[in-house]
Design goal:
Elements (H helix, E strand, L loop, with lengths): L22 E5 L3 E6 L7 E5 L1 E5 L2 E5 L4 E2 L7 H15 L7 H19 L13 H5 L1
Antiparallel strand pairs: 1-2, 2-3, 3-6, 4-5
């Protein structure tokens, strides 16, 4: 997936893949974060990227990971609890139907691209939340 300003994302989904992987990797200009949901501990790690120029060649240093602690509560349970709370308090949820619709548009476009042997599919610009609800 190609976003504005050259930001790219790669999604790999396969029911047939022999290894269960649920990993999110975010690479920035100075750090990299890796969230690995399959791991029992140290699920979120941050790496400071270091690249040196040695004899005219770029050499990447592999720094030790710094583990970020966070709640180990079940995400689906938290999401359902948040939904029920929003229903009782009439608060706007963190993610709503509009967000779900946007995810479905990405999945639909990905499937269309697969059907066309990987040809790029242009997503229409998504209108703002205010325009959709109006």
């Amino acid at each position: 997936m190609l976003f504005d300003r050259g930001v790219r994302a790669h999604l790999f989904v396969s029911w047939l893949h022999p290894y269960k992987e649920q990993k999110l990797v975010v690479v920035g200009s100075r750090r990299m974060a890796v969230f690995d949901d399959v791991r029992k501990t140290e699920k979120l790690q941050v790496y400071d990227k270091k690249i040196d120029l040695v004899d005219g060649q770029f050499v990447a240093e592999k720094p030790a990971a710094r583990t970020i602690d966070f709640s180990s509560d079940e995400p689906l349970l938290l999401e359902c609890s948040h939904f029920l709370d929003c229903m009782q308090t009439r608060n706007t949820p963190k993610t709503d139907g509009h967000d779900g619709w946007r995810v479905l548009k990405v999945l639909e476009s990905s499937q269309r691209s697969l059907s066309m042997n990987g040809e790029p599919v242009q997503l229409e610009p998504l209108r703002s939340l205010e325009l959709v609800r109006a």
